[in-house]
Specification:
Its cofactor is Mg(2+). It catalyses: 1-(5-phospho-beta-D-ribosyl)-ATP + diphosphate = 5-phospho-alpha-D-ribose 1-diphosphate + ATP. Pathway: Amino-acid biosynthesis; L-histidine biosynthesis; L-histidine from 5-phospho-alpha-D-ribose 1-diphosphate: step 1/9. The protein folds into 3 domains: 96 residues, 3-Layer(aba) Sandwich (D-Maltodextrin-Binding Protein, domain 2), CATH 3.40.190.10; 87 residues, D-Maltodextrin-Binding Protein, domain 2 (3-Layer(aba) Sandwich); 67 residues, Alpha-Beta Plaits (2-Layer Sandwich), CATH 3.30.70.120. Strands 2-3-1-4-11-5 form a 6-stranded mixed β-sheet, with helices on both faces. A 5-stranded mixed β-sheet has the order 8-7-9-6-10. Strands 13-14-12-15 form a 4-stranded antiparallel β-sheet. The relative contact order is 0.14. A hairpin with a 4-residue loop joins strand 2 and strand 3. The protein is of the alpha/beta class. It is globular. 30% of the residues lie in helices and 32% in strands. It binds adenosine-5'-triphosphate, 1-O-pyrophosphono-5-O-phosphono-alpha-D-ribofuranose (PRP) and magnesium ion (MG).
């Protein structure tokens, strides 16, 4: 059986399970389940704290894991990112009370509160900043109000938590994160390797299915080159003759985010019966 770690709670948990379901894997029905065997796919899912997942994967006891890129870096574990999953996006930033610092260079001698000591220590060392770090489990924004630190370093998604605490970000983002699939560097899952590759192919299929739509339309043969320039497809569009002399039917995948603009441009070009349909699953 292929053994895969999935976040058991927190920001990544629901989206990770939803994506695995879309990829055709069984997922736990209750948040308290710690292990789920999917016999049809010969996969065993272990629901673990996202912070611990890189440690398990680097130990070799689990073949693959889903965690955050920032948590992978934070762990310092011997594991590497093999696929970015596009959800759980965040930036990692420093913040202070307005006026306390203009730049990270001003942090010398200050104390930084964070739940991500590994990332902060690495960044301070690389930037030559002499600051102390105090580890807190969460709600680090409050550390400033309570005088435990003058700087916080934390995950920022919408920025609401920082705003509510009256803090402002300082310097460039330390890192940008999203959910990722990780495995041991150079690892070959042995007898499970084919299953591991199939797992990654399925997740890539879900990502592509979400990012693209299928577009069909009819256009005059003389407009085909212009139309194909708008809808080149991933390799090349399918072009079929229509019963009407001088017209063709075209089918191509287009990026979902650009679908409306492409439909407008095709219409201007003279294309008609322009339809888009969702892609539920794919293998490229
Ligand atoms: N708003 C957010 N808050 C925290 N983490 C977030 C957020 N958005 C995305 N993430 C990502 O989720 C991962 C952290 O998840 P984790 O479960 O450890 O913390 P959490 O979501 O704050 O949950 P909890 O506070 O219950 O521990 C990181 O990869 C982080 O970048
Ligand atoms: O930019 P935002 O959208 O506000 O999200 C970021 C905040 O959310 C998380 O806290 P969480 O609610 O998980 O509480 P915690 O600090 O106790 O983990 C994180 O630690 C930030 O505080
Ligand atoms: Mg949290």
């Amino acid at each position: 059986m292929l053994r895969i770690a999935v976040p058991n709670k927190g920001s990544l948990s629901d989206r990770a399970s939803a994506m695995l379901r879309e990829a055709g894997y069984q997922q736990r029905k209750e948040a308290k389940e710690l292990v789920l065997v999917d016999p049809g796919n010969a996969v065993e899912f272990f629901y673990l704290r996202p912070r611990d997942i890189a440690v398990y994967v680097s130990s070799g006891r689990l073949d693959l894991g889903i965690t955050g890129r920032d948590l992978l870096v934070e762990s310092g574990a011997n594991a590497e990112e093999v696929l970015a999953l596009g959800f759980g996006r965040s930036t990692f930033r420093y913040a202070v009370k307005p006026g306390w610092a203009r730049d990270t260079a001003d942090f010398d001698g200050l104390t930084i509160a964070t739940s991500y000591e590994g990332i902060v220590a690495k960044h301070l060392a690389a930037s030559g900043i002499q600051a102390s770090v105090v580890h807190l489990d969460g709600a680090v924004e409050t550390a400033i109000e309570l005088g435990v630190a003058q700087v916080v370093a934390d995950v920022v998604e919408t920025g609401t938590s920082l705003r509510n605490a009256g803090l402002e970000v300082i310097g460039e983002p330390v890192m940008e994160s999203e959910a990722v699939v990780i495995r041991r560097p150079g690892a070959d899952a042995g007898s499970q390797e084919a299953k591991a590759r199939q797992f990654l192919r399925r997740l890539k299929g879900v990502l592509v299915a979400g990012a693209y739509v299928m577009m069909d339309y009819d256009c005059r043969a003389e407009d085909l080159e212009g139309a194909v320039a708008l809808t080149p497809g991933l390799e090349a569009p399918t072009v079929s003759p229509l019963h009407n002399e001088g017209w063709v039917a075209v089918r191509a995948m287009v990026p979902a985010a650009e679908a409306q603009r492409i439909m407008d441009d095709l219409y201007e070009l003279g294309a008609r019966a322009i339809l888009t349909t969702a892609i539920h699953a794919c293998r490229l």
